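Encode chain A's predicted structure.
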Amino acid sequence: MATRRGHNEGSIYQRASDSLWVGSINLGYGPDGKRKRKPIYGKTRKEVAEKMKAALRDQQLGVLITTARQTTGQFLTRWLEDVARPSLRASTYETQESHVRVHLIPSFGHVPLQQLTPQHIQAFIKYKLESGLSPHTISDIHGILRHALGQAVKWNLVPRNVAALVDKPRWERPQMNCLTPEQALQLLVAVKGDRFEALYTVAVPLGLRRGEALGLKWEDVDFDKGLLHVRRTLQRVGGKLQLTEPKTRTSRRSINLPQICIAALRGHKDLQRWEKRLAGDRWQEHELVFPTGIGTPYEPNNLKRHLQRMLDKAGLPHIRIHDLRHTAASLMLAQGIQPKVISEILGHSRIGVTLDIYAHLYEPARQEAADRMDQLLGGL
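Encoded structure for chain A:
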């Protein structure tokens, strides 16, 4: 009498072509919505039945490999389209897609997904380091692969995340070049009368990201309440300048404006009215606070070059646009503003980010804390 088939166990039959016994188990539905089955072969019916029992047990334990044909490259391409694209900002997706296409797929995209090992990834990291790619970039690529393979585990395509078994390369955060309070004043004096005077007058005290400053619209400036609302950022995506969502949820924020910023923005609005009349029919209204001379979005790289000219005019060393953000943090710390408040002004995802980035700036505060303990308890 034939034995009853187990749950998810398909029929067992003998193949006429080579007399092998064949069975299969149901793997459920794959990410493409199609039912997946795993074939199992043996010389006898009993052998196939035993292999199927073992496979079903592995499936219940979550260690069954569900597909043998999909390559790592095929999986990564599908992951980018189905998981990364719908969930990431356009600019972030563009960066991750580039890393997958340029680095990961050429290195081991041909390797069957189930055969990808920690050794493949370790060899990849070693090769990229020797070829001169920065440890920071390699660390980012490793993070993308780890995230993607984590999804493969959830989809039951592989039994484990092999990228999680490999340490990413260590890298040191680049040295920050903050302007001192005196240098910050020199820069603001140098930009007096420039059409972007207000941009620097806002960016230096508030630490706006470049894309945040260039993405501001006049509706984001509340002169009555003295608030600046950061709601979008200007990014180059797919070769075109686009207004996109801020970097993180906490990047979308409202900031109290110092009076110096309010005055600068009021003056800038008057200047823009004059530029609009001067441009006439050439003006394209986008309601941007810091557009080009005809109202269109301003190229971020042009702002980088503009900053270098202003630094030369002020007699200051060259720094990056992002260093103005670091300057704002250092100025706020020097004024004794609490890290939590600084984190909120800068739009960091959590206060730990602020503390990690600016840990070296807290050294005077730590020494002051030690001195105060001496004053309090030194007489014991």
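The radius of gyration is 29 Å.
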